[in-house]
Amino acid sequence: MNLLLYYVKLFLECIFLYTGGIVLKKFLNIGSISSFILVFAIIFSFSIVSSDALDTKSLNKELKSEKVSENYFIKSSRLSTNNLNSRSSYLDLTLYGEFEDVSKYQVLNELNRIRKEACDEGIDGLKPDDYVPLKWSVSLEGISTIRSAEASINTSHISPNGEYFDTVVMDGESSSAENLAWNSDSNITMRAISQYYEEKKNLIDNNGKETGHYKAIIKPEYRTVGTASFRAEPELIESKAEGCNAMEFSPKLLIDGDFGYDNDYIPIDVAYRYLVMIGEEIAMPDVIPVGDIVDLDVPAVFDFPKTSDTVYEVRVGGTLNQCIDWSVSDENIVLISRDTKIKPE
Question: pTM (2 decimals)?
Answer without folding.
Answer: 0.68
